[in-house]
Amino acid sequence: MPHQMPDPVLILDFGSQLTQNIARRVRELEIYSEIVPHDVKLSEIKKRRPRALILSGGPASVFEHDAPALDPDVLKLGVPVLGICYGMQIMAHALGGSVEAAAVREYGVTGFHPEKGMGTPWKAFPDSSPVLMSHGDTILKLPSGFRVTGSTRTTPFAAMESQKSRLYGVQFHPEVTQTVQGMEFLRSFLSEIAQIRPNWTLGGYIDRHVEEIAATVGSDHLICALSGGIDSTVTALLCHRAVGKRFQAIFVDNGLMRAGESEQIVRDLKTLSLPLLPVDAGKIFLDRLKGVRDPERKRKIIGKTFIDIFRKEATRRKKKSGFLAQGTLYPDVIESVSHKGPSSVIKSHHNVGGLPKNLPFTLVEPLRELFKDEVRRLGKELGLPDSFIRKQPFPGPGLAIRVIGAVTPERLRIVRDADRIVREELDGTPLASLLWQYFAVLLPIQSVGVMGDQRTYENVVAIRTVMSQDGMTADVGEIPYTVMSRLSHRIISEVRGVNRVVYDISPKPPSTIEWE
Ligand code: XMP
User: Which of 143, 146, 266, 442 is the most exposed place for a label (fewest CB within 10 A)?
Assistant: First the structure.
């Protein structure tokens, strides 16, 4: 029984790593948005009654024979359309303009010069406003009915419009913070051109979903896979509210948690009065991971083992339940869509994607429409303490993907001890509040050292700290040298088996946050 969501702004995904940023930016403007694959059927678009369409960027060139295409009829729906980067090029291409490889490729922040006297939405940009460019192709001829609305030093057609058809295009990326007026431009396009009034807030989300879960589950029982993170905890609170005594949370301790974490999770969840069944399954996870070095295999094994144990525990219960609740978020849902689309899958996150097809449960996923920051706001409304809301994300596969190479009890001990020290030094400091995550990684190499006049040949630990809004992109944490030096000193002297500590200075992209 689907609940009523506002008519969306639909974002057609042509494979850009920034597509989710567009959706989040639109929601920050309190306008509901959804991402769909670029080749979604015209009838499906019409059914969703979009208020506006945004065509995302993408890695292809419109003139490649297998480039993701755009049905030109999408541009004739009478709904305002904004094409971004590849989205602008494919719009021009579909309407008879021409796109070619640029003589000079344009990457990075550059000044945008709107044409003189431009109205909405271009007046968001003062002359020479910084915009982020990232393109190797460029438009050489505009389609008929269009005019150029702005340029940069190397790109004469950096923006275009056909006011009559309400079609707009920008070669730059308004969805990133480097484009300083990007949000104002999107706001102007959505509220002044598309005439959308902001109405997407989380007020009402809780009541709506509690009602929906209660109606879906009826008189049956509902179990929930609880990891102790914010997503599954908020899911559990909604479900518990909806079905009361017929709710059971199950926490599978996979033996891959950080120091003291399982005990802490069980204590925290008790304070929330959630009925919790902890299952100690460390041995079976470690047995199955024995000798496995490949990161994707590790992830798959952990996902499958988790489900095996969960299924066993669930079916062992006297009161059988037909429903399983999960803290699946919108980015997980989009990721499974883009499997088919042109975006490449970087890692198999262990969430809904890992569930086998023949699961004997109907899934309940009340957070499927939300981004992480929206779940945090919801958690606050549900009365979760700040310590919960501010919890760092911790990956489902746990420390197994922070022990690079084979996972053994000894290597887990090393990374767990090093991680504990990183947390002891940073938790609760003003610096920590600026960081999205901080943790230790155990590398699969040994290096020569000298300790107490003895030659050593021991392990290397890397420290990773990142700043991020949503985990999709990340900057390196700027931690003072004194803190780094203290971390290094403590890890080398206190963690047996380590004689070297290094600091990871790679942003995402091109690196990812976790090493595996
Ligand atoms: P990456 O390494 O892909 O991580 O840049 C982005 C964010 O996701 C977290 N992460 C995971 N979370 N299951 C999760 O629930 C996973 O399998 C997983 N892998 C990575 C990571 O910690 C970071 O915050």
Answer: 266
